[in-house]
Amino acid sequence: MDTIHLAAAPGTTWALAPQDAEDHLRARFPDLRAWQEQAPASGKDYVTFQVDLEGASRRGSYFERGHLILDDGDADLWADTVTWFLGLLPADARAIAMIESNPDSVRTIAPGADAAQVREILRSLFDVE
């Protein structure tokens, strides 16, 4: 288990507001618990959420302009959610991914990547020693 960070590729941003992200998350996860917040240091708005997946409560956050954080999981748990989330963005949106335990290993997720491709990219992050 680790924390997956999905971010807009360097030099780009995502035009998805935290409230819009929350609305989409609620549609995907009807039992979602979510809170709109503001980061004290940066002033950025974000949504924090909890959802029950595979019998456990999982957490995540989405920060305005392009940063999704998914806690308490692995590539297999979060790959479908990452693919779904990227589908909310414009077709040419570029993304990068990393895991918290190894921030030096960063992978690009190509626009239009399907769930199997996203799963393999995320697994490669977990396989790095």
Characterization of this structure:
This protein has one domain. It contains three helices and seven strands; from the N terminus they run E-H-E-E-E-E-H-E-E-H. Strands 2-3-4-5-1-6-7 form a seven-stranded antiparallel beta sheet, with helices on one face. It is α+β, with helices and mostly antiparallel strands. The mean pLDDT is 94. Helix 2 crosses helix 3.
Task: Offer a quick outline of the entry.
The chain is α+β, with helices and mostly antiparallel strands and 129 residues long. It has helices spanning 18-28, 75-87, 115-127; strands at 2-8, 33-38, 45-53, 56-63, 67-73, 95-99, 102-109. Helices cover 29% and strands 39% of the residues.
Features:
29% helix; alpha+beta; seven-stranded antiparallel beta sheet
